[in-house]
Amino acid sequence: MNTGSDEPGEVAVASDGAAGETPDETPDETRADGARDGQGLGSKAPEFIKARRALHLSWQVGVFVLGLAVVVAGIIMLPLPGPGWVVIFGGMAIWATEFVWAQLVLRWTKRKVTEAAQRALDPAVRRRNIILTSIGLVIVIALVAVYLWKFGVVMPWKIKDQ
C-alpha cells in the first residue's frame, strides 16, 4: 500500500477524498484540527510520481528548489519595490504542496491572520483605530496648511532660500 510518503507524521489521504468523513459530514466541513476533509497532510504529487521513490525524491527536490527561489525573491522584495510578503507566502504555498512542515506553517499563519481580523472587528479596537486615524489626518492637514501658508503652491524643488 502506497501512503504517498515515508516521512513520519504524514497522513495518507484516500484518493476518493473520503478520508476522515463520516456519513453526516459534507466535504466542506472542517475537522477540529482545522484541516478540510480530503486534504490531509503530505505530498500532493500525482500518484504515478509517488509510486516511484526516485521520481518522488526528484519531484521533492524540484519543489523545494522552486519554492526556495520564490521565497528568496520575496525576501529580496521586502526592502525593494514589490509584494514581498505575498511572494514569500506564495513560496510557502509551493512548499506546502510537498512538505508537511510548510503545510503546518501555512495553517498557523492562516489561523493567526483570522484571529487578528477578528480582533480588528472588535468595537473597542475599531473605535481606537478610528480615533488614531482621525488624529493622524488632522496632523497631516495641519502640516499641509502650514506649508501652503509659508510657501504657497510651489513645488519643494523650486523653493529658494526665503
If you had to describe this structure to a student in words, what would you say it looks like?
With 162 residues, the chain is mostly helical. The N and C termini lie far apart (84 Å). 10% of the residues are buried. The N terminus is likely disordered.
Set down the secondary structure blueprint.
Elements: H1 47-50, H2 53-77, H3 84-96, H4 100-120, H5 123-151
Helix pairs in contact: 2-3, 3-4
Query: How many DSSP-defined strands?
Result: 0
Instruction: Give the helix tally.
Output: 5
Distance between the termini: 84 Å
How would you describe the shape? elongated
Beta fraction: under 5%
Q: Can you give the mean pLDDT?
A: 76
Report the radius of gyration as a whole number of Å: 25 Å
Low-confidence stretches: 1-5, 8-38
Largest sheet: none
Q: Element order, helices and strands? A: HHHHH
Helical content class: 55-70%
Category by helix and strand content:
mainly alpha
Task: Summarize it.
The chain has 162 residues and is an all-alpha fold. The protein has helices spanning 47-50, 53-77, 84-96, 100-120, 123-151. It is elongated and about 75 Å long.
Question: Which terms would index this structure?
Answer:
mainly alpha; 162 residues; 5 helices
